[in-house]
Each structure stands twice: as structure tokens, then as C-alpha cells.
Amino acid sequence: MTRPVSAFAVHLSFNGNCRQAFDYYRNCFGGALRVQTLADTPHGNEMDEDMRNAVVWATLENEYFKLVGTDLTEDGSIISGNNVSILVECPSFTERTRLINKLINRNICAFEYNNPLINVVDMYRVCWILSVH
User: Fold this and answer.
1) pLDDT at 81 over 90
2) Share of the chain residues as helix, strand and coil, in percent rounded to the nearest 5
3) What span, in angstroms and rounded, lies between the C-alpha atoms of 33 and 68?
4) What is the pLDDT of residue 109?
5) What's the rounded Cα separation, in Å, for the pair 125 and 104?
6) Is the domain covering 79-133 a CATH 3.30.720 domain?
7) What is the rounded CA–CA span in Å between residue 78 and residue 23?
8) What are the boundaries of each domain within the chain?
9) What does the DSSP assignment read for the chain?
10) Which InterPro entries does this entry report, sorted A to Z (predicted)?
11) Same fold, 10-75 and 79-133
12) Which CATH architecture has domain 10-75?
């Protein structure tokens, strides 16, 4: 049975143990794991070893779910409750702006911020990450 391609995933944030966690989840659930570290980026060789090993993006896809994670956070402090977000992969910046407006319950001017990832917290304090690929 093949799983349909989903438009959203669960996003987890870690304090330096993302790779370890994703290896564990792959062992539990199976699936294809892809990991990109800072060492894989153009400036990775200029960083110290701890930073080079930090996970920029890990993705585990299997018959149950798509799980995405990172060691990189905005303020660097992860506590239980702020480490889980829902990642929505939008087909365009226009669609992402529409969803941001809906989630924050107001209409903002054309939000043409070209960062591929935007964090939004809705009125229920649910964390969303909206991306455009």
C-alpha cells in the first residue's frame, strides 16, 4: 500500500540530538531517512565540529507519516511544548500568504517575505511552519 503525498508533516525541534532521534524513529517505524547537516552547506567547513554536525533538515517518510526535524531554532532553547510544529508545504508564496492571514485571523499586506520557512502561532497557541519549495 502506497501512501499519498501529503501537504503537511509534523516538525520537531531538537537541542543537538536530531540525528540521534531520527535514527531512533527510523528504527521504530522504518522508512527513508534524509539528513542534511551544516557540514553539507557551502560554509560548513568554516564551522567548528559541533556546529558542522548540527542537523539543518532531517526527513523521515514511511507508510505512517512524514516527520521533519532540525537542531536549528530561532532562540536555541527547546522545552517540552515548543518543540512540535505542523509543517505545511505550500505550492506558492501567494498561497502561503493566504494561509498566514487565515491562521493569524487578520489580513496583512502582501506578505512577500522570500524566506522559504515562516513560523506562525495561531490563536490556540498551535505552532505552524509554512514553507514554499
Assistant:
1) no
2) 25, 30, 45
3) 10
4) 55
5) 10
6) yes
7) 20
8) 10-75, 79-133
9) -PPPPPSEEEEEE-SS-HHHHHHHHHHHH--EEEEEEGGGSTTGGGS-HHHHTSEEEEEEE-SS-EEEEES--SSS---TTSSEEEEEEESSHHHHHHHHHHHTTSPPS------SEEEEE-TT--EEEEEE-
10) Glyas_Bleomycin-R_OHBP_Dase (IPR029068)
11) no
12) Roll (3.10)
Is residue 28 helix, strand or coil?
A: helix
Dihedral angle of Cα 6, 55, 23, 68, to the nearest 10 degrees: -10
- The C-alpha R_g of the chain, in whole angstroms, comes to 16
Q: How far apart are CA 66 and CA 71, in angstroms?
A: 17
Work out the number of other CB atoms within 10 angstroms of the CB of residue 21: 17
Residue 49 has pLDDT above 90, yes or no: no
Which pTM value belongs to this model? Answer: 0.71
